[in-house]
Amino acid sequence: MKNNHSFRRAWAWGTAFFLALTLLFTSCAQNATKDPNAQTSPSGPPSDTPSVSPDTSGTELPTPVADWCTHPHTEGVAKVNATCTTDGYENRLKCTDCGAILESTGKIIPAYGHQYKDRKCIYCEKAEPSLVISGQYENSQVVWKLYDNGELAVSGIGVIPDFPADEESYFSGYNKAVHSIVVYNGITSIGDNAFRILKDAETISISSSVRHIGDHAFDGWSLKTLNLSYGIETVGKDNFTHNRLFFLEIPASVRTIGSGSFASEQLITMRVPSSVVQFEVNENQFSNLTHIVFMGSRAQAQQLSLYRHLLTDMGYATLNIRYQYTDKASKMPYCTKRGQVSGDFTYSIYTDNTARITKYRGVSAEVNVPEKIGSYTVVGIDKECFKENKNIRKVTLPSTCKDIFLNAFLDSSLEELTLLADTVRVGEAAFSGCSSFKTLHFEGVFTDVGGKAFSNTKVEDIPLSPELRVVRISAFAYSGVKNVNFRPFEIISESAFGRTSLGVVDLTGVQEVGMGAFYNAGVRSLNVTDVGILCHAAFLSNSALTKNEVIGLETVGTVENQVFDFKIG
């Protein structure tokens, strides 16, 4: 076999790349501007709840601050009142040139927290949890409380102090009981190793008053939801490692990120704001990352593209680097109105006179989404639009509708789908769990398919664009897919076609076949000529596949252990 390790996606982001990326971000951000009238959060802790930013596991997020546009023209946005769990704001501005919400302007209204009376919050009626244990950090004004619902709440004024890595933590003995961590408004800094041992926390929320997160402050082994508010400026090394996030948007206030932070085997897309001037990246830090979106102007994007060869040299030949332009000449559309209603549909309006359907309010089994709602062209089905809808059976989307977002039809009773567009992009888990979905009428191609997009469906023919290069994690797992042209693909991720019934599979020239990619996939004939790497368990539990039915095995760059049911040697 060839000793060809250049195809392996355990990428080596070495010192040279870190230095280049650091210098690049510094150069790109040197003209970034801050609003001189920005106001900081009022000091003092709320009663019980932190300021929590939007859930970053989805694909639709508020427009971050676009520092490379100087925002010469602004207008005010409506006041948003605080709630028990979220900050509000007033006197905030929006740039009318690039559309960015200027998070540094105006005044933050801190979340006022739950106020309990008779074991129930007088505002939101949430039941009051019982206190398990509490304490106060030594030489500080910060206290912590662990409740029986698994929430560790930290409040007070000032700094959570550093904690020696080799000493017993405040939370020793209770680390398995903590499932969420909330840091209240009033905390300004989180010290080294503060919550390092809490490996079972699935949700971490950090308020807008926090400016600094120290080294190893948070672990990420169980992390599914990360709420980082605007205001954080520095993130130390090795924070939120091994997380289970698929999407990460770094707040537009962050300037430096230490080595190892946000490391993930599952992270697919990451948005980096123009405020970041230093981002240290270690070898293998993002083993499944396929998309990076840099926020900035067209001129800055051109400068950044000069460094693309560095990414390629480090094994990032398949990385999709995108630039979200923020200058006036090429501004991106942004949402201006949400919650609009027309008949059975709720929709959002965007600056380019387009609309996205956000919810179907009807009860019909057959749904025809219109091409226009009023004067607005319908271009997408927003996240969770038909999620868990048990009425729908047949849905038709117009030729203008080219985006189906995260969880759009998740676990619904959809049986038949007609797509009239020539190209369609499908978000993560868009059709996952639609166990009755068997019929697809589509003469175009899918140009992008998210992780778990068609998992647990019965569709057999799914037309994929010849330009599609990466098949994401579990995209077609447990599905009825049978007819697939694998030749355009460069990377087939973990469990992508697991537990299917494919039969004949030709992977000639594919760079990487991920772990368990074709596990129990009914493969009986296989061509792996010039494949870069076959990862562990890629073809396990394919009982009909013998060594005699595998073509080109001797040309594979790397074959890991237990790829097949049979022995290679």
Brief digest:
The protein is mainly β and 569 residues long. It is built from three helices and 42 strands.
Fold topology:
Blueprint: H1 15-29, E1 74-76, E2 88-90, E3 93-95, E4 101-102, E5 107-109, E6 116-117, E7 120-121, E8 131-136, E9 141-147, E10 151-160, E11 180-183, E12 187-190, E13 203-206, E14 212-213, E15 225-228, E16 234-235, E17 247-249, E18 256-257, E19 269-272, E20 278-279, E21 291-296, H2 298-305, H3 308-313, E22 320-325, E23 335-342, E24 345-350, E25 354-360, E26 366-368, E27 372-373, E28 376-381, E29 394-397, E30 403-404, E31 416-419, E32 423-426, E33 439-442, E34 445-449, E35 470-471, E36 491-492, E37 503-506, E38 512-513, E39 523-527, E40 533-534, E41 550-551, E42 558-559
Parallel strand pairs: 10-11, 10-12, 11-13, 12-14, 13-15, 14-16, 16-18, 17-19, 18-20, 19-21, 21-22, 25-28, 26-29, 28-30, 29-31, 30-32, 31-33, 32-34, 35-36, 36-38, 37-39, 38-40, 39-41, 40-42
Antiparallel strand pairs: 1-3, 2-5, 3-4, 6-7, 8-9, 9-10, 23-24, 24-25, 27-28
Structural class: mainly beta
Through-space gap between termini: 11 Å
Looking at CATH, the homologous superfamily of the largest domain is Ribonuclease Inhibitor
H/I helix tally: 3
Beta-strand segment tally: 42
Task: Please identify the top-level CATH class of the largest domain.
Answer: Alpha Beta
User: What is the averaged pLDDT score?
Assistant: 79
CATH architecture grouping of the largest domain: Alpha-Beta Horseshoe
Strand-residue proportion: 25-35%
How many domain regions? Answer: 3
CATH topology of the largest domain: Leucine-rich repeat, LRR (right-handed beta-alpha superhelix)
- The radius of gyration computed from the alpha-carbon positions, rounded to a whole number of angstroms, is 25 Å
